[in-house]
Amino acid sequence: xxxxxxxxxxxxxxxxxxxxxxxxxxxxxxxxxxxxxxxxxxxxxxxxxxxxxxxxxxxxxxxxxxxxxxxxxxxxxxxxxxxxxxxxxxxxxxxxxxxxxxxxxxxxxxxxxxxxxxxxxxxxxxxxxxxxxxxxxxxxxxxxxxxxxxxxxxxxxxxxxxxxxxxxxxxxxxxxxxxxxxxxxxxxxxxxxxxxxxxxxxxxxxxxxxxxxxxxxxxxxxxxxxxxxxxxxxxxxxxxxxxxxxxxxxxxxxxxxxxxxxxxxxxxxxxxxxxxxxxxxxxxxxxxxxxxxxxxxxxxxxxxxxxxxxxxxxxxxxxxxxxxxxxxxxxxxxxxxxxxxxxxxxxxxxxxxxxxxxxxxxxxxxxxxxxxxxxxxxxxxxxxxxxxxxxxxxxxxxxxxxxxxxxxxxxxxxxxxxxxxxxxxxxxxxxxxxxxxxxxxxxxxxxxxxxxxxxxxxxxxxxxxxxxxxxxxxxxxxxxxxxxxxxxxxxxxxxxxxxxxxxxxxxxxxxxxxxx
Length: 516
Prior knowledge:
Elements: H1 2-27, H2 41-46, H3 52-60, H4 64-67, E1 73-78, H5 80-87, H6 94-99, E2 102-103, E3 117-121, E4 127-133, E5 136-139, E6 142-147, E7 154-159, H7 169-176, H8 178-185, E8 188-192, E9 198-202, E10 208-211, E11 214-218, H9 219-223, E12 236-240, H10 243-257, H11 269-282, E13 285-287, E14 299-301, E15 307-309, E16 320-322, E17 325-329, H12 338-341, E18 342-346, E19 351-355, E20 358-361, E21 366-370, E22 377-380, E23 388-393, E24 402-411, E25 416-423, E26 429-434, E27 437-438, E28 449-450, E29 458-459, E30 465-466, E31 473-480, E32 487-497, E33 505-508, E34 510-515
Parallel strand pairs: 1-7, 12-17
Antiparallel strand pairs: 1-2, 3-4, 4-5, 5-6, 6-7, 8-11, 9-10, 12-13, 14-15, 16-17, 18-34, 19-20, 21-24, 22-23, 23-33, 24-32, 25-31, 25-34, 26-27, 26-28, 26-32, 29-30
Helix pairs in contact: 7-8
């Protein structure tokens, strides 16, 4: 019994001797003091030289009123030396950075479990990352070396460096690729905010009339990802070419076009916004935080759920960590020549469904001129482009005129081969016009051609014969030499009379412009 009692007192004595040292060491790091301290944060900070630089700049930027308010807050305070080092190199503005170190809520480090993390919304309205790595705590990767007790209006932590707010994806693009940033800005659209607008009655058509409140939405962000916003747990990965590699690729494209085109500055901005950049972003915005190895595949879904071909290589060394995701730049980049050397016009793009199995020409895409109006149809047919065709059947032996006229946008001045893929089983005698000039078809230079003759094949302007497939589809073509300026062109398919086939009408699988 005496041995046990002696052992007990020895352990107690050892605990009394060691405990103060353990407590001091732990408190200097992360142990929270639960007892109230009857002082305000601002009073504590402003009375100590240790925080003089932080206090000075808070006063300069009028942030002292926020810290001195009754609202609870948590501060992450860099040392004086850290602030001076940062200011000697600062290029983004210290006020925004300082606001990033102020959290308008109370936060305790011990709420972050070992090897876990938590994101805090700061006064700058950006999320900072708090990490617990093997019981060491970090604020956006900067070590936290002291935790204050709880004061009347919050608490503070001391950190060894100034933490620089990470840009969101939009801010990164704004700084590093002005062309893509400009495109995204152009997607802003003003719409009616139904939640804020009040219904005040009905019009003569029975539609609700609102006391309208307008709001601006960005159509790119609505379709893909809100790259200008930040979330606690939602991220995206964007892969785009950087400014220099983007401009170099446009310069190579310009030299390939030739003529008056020699550098990226000669490429029309409208073509970039209508063709190139939408194609880049469609295959370059993904959900989550993707690593370089994730792109080692042929096809993957983009953020909208569309399957896209991964025909680029993301540069691992270019990875930028943003506040709402990751950005990679292309390792190499060139503009795919089909984007500027080819235009594909699918027949199904000309019609809209107006009922069950009923279709009409789309007014703002197609102009129909004729002595009679024929309703178009759309069918799924194996062997056609996209397995879909559009056609209009005419009455037997129809001898009056009928034409389909439409615009093709953003066409560069080059010599093109115009291809019309149609079917010899529904036929007529046709001419094709580009910018109101007739296109001479085939090696024989037909100004009019009976499509029923396609049953025997067609001698292409390329010098060889094209043959129909088993479904009756065949190409006819001709050279187009009158496109001398960049912009919109008009193509017209004009019907003159019935062909040799008993079935009379017009069939459009697709039309294409292919640069020579």
